[in-house]
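Listing S7. Sequence submitted for prediction.
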Amino acid sequence: MDILDRLAKSKFRSRFKLRAKELEYIKEKGLDKIRSHACDFIRDRVAPSEPVNDGKQTPMRGHPVFIAQHATATCCRSCIEKWHKIPKGRELTKTEQEYLVAVIMKWIKNFTSLKF
C-alpha cells in the first residue's frame, strides 16, 4: 500500500489540509520553489542525527510544507521512524532526504490538484 494511502487512514494525519492562504502561496511561488523549501526544511530541521527540539521543530501552520510534513509524518524523527521505517539516532542520508521530500511534494500535488 502506498504511504499516502496509509497516512490518509490516520485520523490525526488526515485532518491536515491546505487552506486558501497556503494554496495562494503555492500558486504564487510555484511548485519548484515549494520543493526547494521542503528540501531546506528536511535538511535543516529533521536530517541531523539529533535534531534541535525534535518533536517540536515543525510548526503546525505558517507554510504549506509544514502542514504537509504533519500530514505525511515527515515532521520529526519519531514520526519518520514510525511511518517511514527510517531509524532515529543517525543523520538522514541524501537518498532518505530525497524520499521524504518526494512524499511531501506528492501530498501537496495531490491536494492542490483538487483545488486548482
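Caption to Listing S7: primary sequence and predicted C-alpha cells for the chain studied. Residues 103 and 112 are 14 Å apart (CA to CA). The radius of gyration is 13 Å.
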